[in-house]
Automatic annotation (TrEMBL):
UniProt catalytic activity: dTMP + ATP = dTDP + ADP
Span of domain Thymidylate kinase-like: 17-210
Alphabetically ordered keywords of this record: ATP-binding, Kinase, Nucleotide biosynthesis, Nucleotide-binding, Transferase
PANTHER family for the chain: THYMIDYLATE KINASE, UMP-CMP KINASE 2, MITOCHONDRIAL
GO-annotated biological processes: dTDP biosynthetic process; dTTP biosynthetic process; dUDP biosynthetic process
EC numbers: 2.7.4.9
This protein's GO CC annotations: cytosol
Superkingdom as given in the UniProt entry: Bacteria
Name of the protein in question: Thymidylate kinase
Length: 219
């Protein structure tokens, strides 16, 4: 079951960006931030896992390839530990102050990666989600979708240019990411009013035109 509740008690809006590796989330997050700023909206940009000092420390553990023995359950609990700190310290105060929050990933990623790909039951994830989030859910989730092979090529090219090694998730095989992609698309089908699926294989200008149209509708 996909939760469709929004943050009706806050004047700010909560937007999240999701998708498999190489979908262009980072590039489009910058676009969204600038679009909102151009429309005089006070925006806080953040990411998961991470967003606060404690959450970023947990992120280092989660992405470190040396922890190959990490169980799916440990991975899930670490994700939600970082998420709880992120919510309490950064997201909820910003929304309460009337700011818009834009996050590179949120709980949909747990359903996709730890649920769809790692095999943890969705109802188990939902139990932790309800406990940690206490009714705080995104107003809109943008899913940047593209074929897995294309995404993996983009990640490899990015790593070659930056010289940065791929992390513990990026080193997974194609089948893993196919499951992640399927999970994202399934969740989007279940709650089309909250999700906007974007064809990330299309030219960037087309993707951002659709993004701008969706942002306009949120105003």
């Amino acid at each position: 079951m996909t939760n469709t509740q929004s943050n009706t008690s806050y004047s700010g809006k909560f937007l999240t960006l999701e998708g498999t590796e190489g979908g262009g989330k980072s590039t489009n997050l910058v676009f969204i931030q600038q679009w909102l700023a151009d429309h005089n909206i006070d925006v806080v940009v953040t990411r998961e896992p991470g967003g606060t000092a404690i959450s970023e420390a947990v992120r280092e553990i989660l992405l470190d390839k040396q922890y190959s023995e990490m169980t799916p359950e440990t991975e899930l609990l670490l994700m939600f530990a970082a998420r709880n700190q992120h919510l309490q310290e950064k997201i909820l105060p910003a929304l309460a102050a009337g700011k818009w929050v834009v996050s590179d990933r949120f709980t949909d990623a747990s359903y996709a990666y730890q649920g769809g790909a790692r095999g943890i039951a969705y109802n188990r994830i939902a139990e932790i989600e309800n406990w940690v989030q206490q009714g705080c859910y995104p107003d809109m989730t943008f899913v940047f979708d593209l074929p897995i092979e294309e995404g993996m090529k983009r990640v490899a090219a990015r790593s070659q240019v930056s010289g940065q090694a791929i992390d513990r998730f990026e080193q997974e095989k194609k089948d893993f990411f196919e499951k992640v992609r399927a999970a994202y698309l399934y969740r989007a089908e279940q709650a089309p009013q909250r999700y906007c699926v974007l064809d990330a294989a299309r030219p960037l200008t087309e993707v951002q035109e659709k993004l701008a149209s969706q942002l306009e509708s949120l105003l």
